[in-house]
């Protein structure tokens, strides 16, 4: 795997969907390469590709089954050409819908999101573990907060606070965003306002490359219906309400000579609007009147339940423009720069200059504007649709900025003791940085300012392992006093990645996947490692019996201690040690030392004893059925770590072990595992049973019963006399005796047992 992590965010807006692809260094590699200063910074996220298609996904509300093949298909196909093939499965994808989807009916919205999730999982290999997190309609507040992160990230308000000192210990920028359906504002109030309105703020937590965290308290709000397209719809509704019986509605926000439908499209010859059969709108080209006509749309007279308020009665803490400097993106940029700041893209927004240029443009006739568009008088990006809409948009933007939010009108309003900032704004915008009250931007250092970047910065930050295990999670939520993670906390969605212990200086060549390259220094040890893994896998696949058989043959081939006593001491110990280690791997049931053949030999109890042996551990692979007898009258034999458990066999009934000798024990001396009748009696450990009224009967050995009756703890505990406990010679499934080759169930031992009973 490479050194880069990739991430994809689909911005599903009201007019179209943009797919953004980002990359950043994996946390372990970023930490190794970072300088001391860089360690205290956020992960460096780079935007590497953007593609937009039309229309917005909200248009598929009535036909959700088409959103995949007709819309998402080309976006995902494009992403496959950007993200390296070996990184696709590790690349998270987010589809975050905004205002267009917020306006969709709830049932249609849910169905559409479900269809998107199903299509993405079936047709792509991108990382999509949780559709509720990765595919959703985000609130306007979340969109605004992501934008605030993106702007301050690019301006380095986070990483270099000393270089962005606005006074009053304030170093971050406010963020303004306006789309087609909604508008957002996000800013960190000054200390006084932050304390006064603490419950209205969002707590944001980010994590730096070194694992330390930083927290910010930000106010965010959104105004649904205050985007330029929705504002235009409300404006037309007001025109219709003002003149309900008129077929032609005069509009000062359109150039003179331009006639459009109520939907904003130019009237075509022969259409119902052209014939006077349907209401249409005619432009008058009076921009000053346009500004006055648009002002009521701000709804400044709405009741304010929690003062102070700005638009539509929405509460907003007081903005201190001495320290709160705002960045405006999207429509703030397009409307102020695509036409009116052509060839002046490095200039800051200036109300006086801007309004002058808008007046000049909107006072032109539509025929002159159309000719200018064809001659590219305002650049190649300005088409007739843009020119048709820009006068209303400019009027709306001016109203929102100055009468709505309250941004000072530089050039008209005297500030800082009567100082007029117009000349400085125009001539030294770049030198001043972004310390003006408002600055419309599109890119910072070549990177587009988009809320999607803020989302990905937050995600990349969450992947960094915390320096302290007690460090709280990366994300955001309500600023609840005393709570680091609020009840509504939104986790960033990443998983902490452990930093690598590899200290090689060349990170680009340190991935283990390069062991197959001819010039890799890890090629030889890499092949040995792979071979060893395969060998161990084959050994484990052979099964326990084959591994035991292999060890048995090894012990026969290397018995040890055969040349001389001295040589045996030198050889047997290391050899036995090696075989003992191997037995752990191969599953042998015998201790190091000479191996014994599994043969049935004649003998008696007097020829051998159970003075030093131990039963093996039970095989973990056994099931309960392995320890039970399915025949009628049998009982289940459980595992024990002590003496034998009584067993029923045939008609012999309950049995009580009775062992004679120096170490003899009666059943009453032992733990009462079962209550046994006093009339039943047996000699030994359950190999045979003796009924008081008849000859002994052989119950059967461990092999016949399909399982071992008892498990013995140690050699010391079973140091019994061989004559009184012949059955102690059992070992494993074959009943092997450590000090003799004869079996406990051999004919000689059974005869001895019978004679002892008689």
In total, the number of strands is 22
Query: Roughly what fraction of the amino acids lie in strands?
Result: 5-15%
Average predicted confidence as pLDDT: 74
Radius of gyration: 42 Å
Structurally, how many domains make up the residues? 5
How helical, in percent, are the residues? 25-40%
CATH architecture classification of the largest domain:
2-Layer Sandwich
Shape: globular
CATH level 1 class label of the largest domain = Alpha Beta
By helix and strand content, what is the structural category?
Answer: alpha/beta
Question: Residue ranges: pLDDT <50 for 5 or more in a row?
Answer: 411-433, 496-522, 561-575, 588-758
Provide keyphrases for this structure.
758 residues, alpha/beta, Nucleotidyltransferase, domain 5, 5-stranded mixed beta sheet, 21 helices, 22 strands, 14% strand, GDP phosphatase activity, GDA1_CD39_NTPase, transmembrane, ATP binding
């Amino acid at each position: 795997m490479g050194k880069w992590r990739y991430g994809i965010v689909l911005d599903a807006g009201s007019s179209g969907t943009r797919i953004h692809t980002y990359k950043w260094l994996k946390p372990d590699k970023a930490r190794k390469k970072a300088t001391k200063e860089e360690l205290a910074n956020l992960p460096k996220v780079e935007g590497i590709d953007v593609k937009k298609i039309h229309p917005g996904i909200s248009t598929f509300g009535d036909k959700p089954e088409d959103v995949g093949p007709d819309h998402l298909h080309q976006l995902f196909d494009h992403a496959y050409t950007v993200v390296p093939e070996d990184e696709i499965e590790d690349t998270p994808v987010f589809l975050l819908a905004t205002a267009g989807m917020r306006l969709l009916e709830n049932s249609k919205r849910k169905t559409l999101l479900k269809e998107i999730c199903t299509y993405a999982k079936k047709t792509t290999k991108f990382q999509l573990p949780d559709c509720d997190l990765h595919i959703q309609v985000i609130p306007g507040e979340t969109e605004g907060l992501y934008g605030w992160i993106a702007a301050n990230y690019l301006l380095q308000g986070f990483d270099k606070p000393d270089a962005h000192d606005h006074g009053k210990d304030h170093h971050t920028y406010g963020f303004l965003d306006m789309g087609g359906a909604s508008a957002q504002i996000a800013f960190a109030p000054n200390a006084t306002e932050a304390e006064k309105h603490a419950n209205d703020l969002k707590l944001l937590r980010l994590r730096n490359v070194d694992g330390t965290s930083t927290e910010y308290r930000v106010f965010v709000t959104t105004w649904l219906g205050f985007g330029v397209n929705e504002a235009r719809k409300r404006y037309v509704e007001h025109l219709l309400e003002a003149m309900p019986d008129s077929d032609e509605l005069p509009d000062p926000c359109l150039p003179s000579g331009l006639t459009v439908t109520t939907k904003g499209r130019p009237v075509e010859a022969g259409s119902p609007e052209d014939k006077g059969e349907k209401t249409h709108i005619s432009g008058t080209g009076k921009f000053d009147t346009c500004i006055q006509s648009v002002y009521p749309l701000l709804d400044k007279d709405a009741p304010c339940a929690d003062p102070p308020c700005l638009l539509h009665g929405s509460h907003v803490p007081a903005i201190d423009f001495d320290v709160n400097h705002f960045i405006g993106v999207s429509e703030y940029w397009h409307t102020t720069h695509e036409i009116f700041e052509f060839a002046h893209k490095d200039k800051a927004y200036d109300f006086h200059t801007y309004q002058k240029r808008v007046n000049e443009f909107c006072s032109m006739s539509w025929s002159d504007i159309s000719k200018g568009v064809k001659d590219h008088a305002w650049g190649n990006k300005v088409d007739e649709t843009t020119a048709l809409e820009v006068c209303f948009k400019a009027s709306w933007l001016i109203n929102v900025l100055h009468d709505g939010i309250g941004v000072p009108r530089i050039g008209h309003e005297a500030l800082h003791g009567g100082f007029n900032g117009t000349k400085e704004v125009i001539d030294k915008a770049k030198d001043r940085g972004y310390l003006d009250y408002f600055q419309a931007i599109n890119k910072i250092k070549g990177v587009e300012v988009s809320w999607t970047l803020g989302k990905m910065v937050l995600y990349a930050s969450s992947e960094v392992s915390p320096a302290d295990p007690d460090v709280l999670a990366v994300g955001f939520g309500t600023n609840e006093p005393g709570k680091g993670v609020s009840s509504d906390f939104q986790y960033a969605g990443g998983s902490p990645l452990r930093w690598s212990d590899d200290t090689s200086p060349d990170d680009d060549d340190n991935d283990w996947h390069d062991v197959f390259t001819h010039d890799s220094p890890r090629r030889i040890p890499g092949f040995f490692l792979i071979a060893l893994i395969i060998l161990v896998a084959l050994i484990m696949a052979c099964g326990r019996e084959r591994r035991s058989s292999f060890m048995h043959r090894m012990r026969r081939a290397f018995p040890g201690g055969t040349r001389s006593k001295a040589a045996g001491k030198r050889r047997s110990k290391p050899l036995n040690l090696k075989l003992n280690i191997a037995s752990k791997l191969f599953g042998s049931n015998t201790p190091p030392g000479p191996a014994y053949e599994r043969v049935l030999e004649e003998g008696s109890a007097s020829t051998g004893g159970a003075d030093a042996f131990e039963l093996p551990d039970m095989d973990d692979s056994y099931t309960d059925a392995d320890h039970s007898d399915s025949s009628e009258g049998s009982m289940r034999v459980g595992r024990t770590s002590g003496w034998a458990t009584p067993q029923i066999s045939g008609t012999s009934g309950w049995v009580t072990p009775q062992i004679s000798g120096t170490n003899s024990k009666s059943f009453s001396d032992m733990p009462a595992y079962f209550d046994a009748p006093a009339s039943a009696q047996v000699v030994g450990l359950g190999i045979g049973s003796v009924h008081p009224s008849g000859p002994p009967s052989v119950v059967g050995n461990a092999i016949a019963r399909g399982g071992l009756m008892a498990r013995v703890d140690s050699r010391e505990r079973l140091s019994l006399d061989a004559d009184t406990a012949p059955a102690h010679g059992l070992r494993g499934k074959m009943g092997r005796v450590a000090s003799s080759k004869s079996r406990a169930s051999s004919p000689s031992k059974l005869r001895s047992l019978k004679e002892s009973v008689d």
